[in-house]
Structure formats: C-alpha cells, structure tokens
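pinging the channel bc i need a second pair of eyes. not urgent but kinda urgent?? the chain im working w is below, pasted from the shared doc
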Amino acid sequence: MASLKLEIMDKIVALMTAAFGFVAALAWNGAISQLMEDWLGTGEDQTMGLIIYAVIVTIVAVIAIVLISRAYGKIKIKEDAKEAAKK
C-alpha cells in the first residue's frame, strides 16, 4: 500500500513541478518581456533581453524543482522507514 502511495506522490510531484514551471513562465512572460523591451529597445538588441529572460525563468524553475524534490525526498524517507518498521 505504501508503494502505491509513493508512486502517486511521485507523479503528483512531477506534475506540480511541470505546472509550476509553466505557470511561472507564463506569469512572468509579459512583465519580463516588457522590461527587456524598455531596457534594450526593439530590434536586434531584443535578442539579449530574451536570453536574459530565459536564464531568469530557468533559475526560478530550478530552485522550485529542488525545493519540491527535497520535500518529496523527506516524505519518501519517512514512508520507507514506516514500511521497514512494519516488516
């Protein structure tokens, strides 16, 4: 039973991670794009702004993934310990 619970939690963590990355990118897309346009103008200079934008979104997503993974790891260790204690 615990393994099914862990499998379900594993899938939920994966979905949460993907959803967080997607929602964060959408939420910041307009604001950061406008900031880069204001800062760098339009045209060829905008490419550097898009690169900076991509780096920022990637950093935020990686931090969120690490935090979610750590929380899941702690839960998994507790569940494994409970399962081992039952045996």
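so The chain has a mean pLDDT of 80. and Residues 46-86 form the longest helix (41 residues). — does that match what u expected or am i reading it wrong
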